Amino acid sequence: MAKRNSPKGKPVQPAPEEPIIKAQAAQNDEKKRRLILVIAGMSATLLSLGTRAASELGRGRMEQILIKGNSGYVVMAEAASGTLLIVLTTQEAKLGLIFLEMKRAIGEFKRFI
Q1: How does pLDDT run across 40-69, given as a tens digit for each residue?
Q2: Which of 13, 54, 65, 105 is most buried by a 10 A CB count?
Q3: DSSP codes, 71-86
C-alpha cells in the first residue's frame, strides 16, 4: 500500500481494519477490568458501612444499599454471604420493579449455590 500524508504532515501507512478492531477490543477489555475493580472496591466499602450503620442504628441486618445520583441509581443487595447483586439504572427506572427483579434474581442465584 502507498503511504500518504496525514494532516500533520507525517507519512501514514493505511492498515486493515481488523487489527484496529482487535486493539480497540483489548482496550475496551482493559477499561472493563478497571471498572470492575473500582466497582468491587467501592461495593466492599459500602457493604461494610451499610452493615455497620444498620446495626448501630438499630435497623437490623442490612438488606439493600440505594444510591441516587443525578444520572440514575445504584442499588446493591446481598445475594449471599459476601456476595452482592449490583444494579445500575437510569433516573427513569421504576425502583419497585427493580427491587422485585433483584429479589427474584437473588432467589435464582441462591438455588445454584
Answers
A1: 888 888 888 998 999 999 999 888 999 999
A2: 65
A3: TEEEEEEEEETTEEEE
